[in-house]
Amino acid sequence: MRIIPAFVVIAIIYIALLLPSYSFAQFGSKKGAQALVKGTVTDKDTGEPAGVKITIHTLNGKKIKTQSNSGTGHYEQLLPAGQVYKFVFTSYDILRKEQNVEVKQSAKFTEEEIDFTVQKLKKGLNLMDMNLFERNSSALTSTGKRKLKELQKIMRFNRSIKLDLIVNANDSFSNDSPKNQVNELVASRADALKNYIKNWKRYFKRLNVITDGTLSGGASNLVVSVNSIEDVLGG
After folding, report:
1. Residue 162 exposed, middle or buried by CB count within 10 Å (0-12, 13-18, 19+)
2. Which helix (H) or strand (E) holds 177?
3. Contact present, 164 and 227 (Cβ < 8 Å)
4. Distance (Å, rounded) from C-alpha 127 to C-alpha 147?
5. pLDDT in tens, 39-98
6. CA 28-30-33 angle, 5° bins
7. Which H or E run includes 17?
8. What is the pTM of this model?
9. Tell me: the pLDDT tens digits for 123-180?
10. Within 10 A of 2 (CB to CB), how many other CB atoms are there?
11. Alpha carbon of 127 to those of 209, 223, 226: distances in Å?
12. What are the residues facing 43 on neighbouring strands?
């Protein structure tokens, strides 16, 4: 029979005593109190309830999926307390939205009410106004190019929408300016925009560049407006 040295036995006992407290320190937060997070999701413009898909991202990369009721906008989800979550709201008829939410730490079960608003999409809705072009020019500004990158992101996450890009010359002319000069600049800007976005591949088919020779007195020279919304997922 093989005899185990005494120091080995002592070491094994020491590790066995230490392990539970170590495990609790490392993983105790996973066994902590739960919180029922609940509230309503509404349209930011009208206050009407919005039925949307909600994906909740945890810090360790897990995803929890739920949805709000289309009739009441109500949602609820049980989550471990004391953590920060990223809520992502999606639907074919809203702009995709991300919002970080901190669920307060608690020693016992709690209920936490958090309401959200989303942007409902509808034909004619102005999504963006920008000064895409230099004054009296069809050259694109660096700020305008950054705005177009934001537009690409909107289209990537909102595949249901088709957009009108309405080019004008509000920044360069007044109401008594010669009409032919206004139309000339607007047409030149529209051509420059089409040339810039022609390599946007699948997005290009969902964009319609429109010229607007009327002078409204606004400060921006490009308006991005919703042309149509289509349920590409069939529900």
Report:
1. middle
2. none
3. yes
4. 11
5. 999 999 999 999 999 999 999 999 999 999 999 999 999 999 999 999 999 999 999 999
6. 90
7. helix 6-27
8. 0.77
9. 999 999 999 999 999 999 999 999 999 999 999 999 999 999 999 999 999 888 999 9
10. 3
11. 15, 8, 7
12. 118
**Where do the domains of the chain lie, and which CATH numbers do they carry?**
32-118 (2.60.40.2190), 126-229 (3.30.1330.60)
Rounded CA separation 94/103 (Å)? 25
> Within 13 Å, how many C-alpha atoms sit on residue 118's CB side?
27
Beta-sheet pairing, 34-43 with 116-118: parallel
Nearest partner of 226 among 153, 77, 123, judged by Cα:
123
Cα torsion angle, 221, 223, 224, 227, sign: negative
Three-class DSSP category at 176: coil
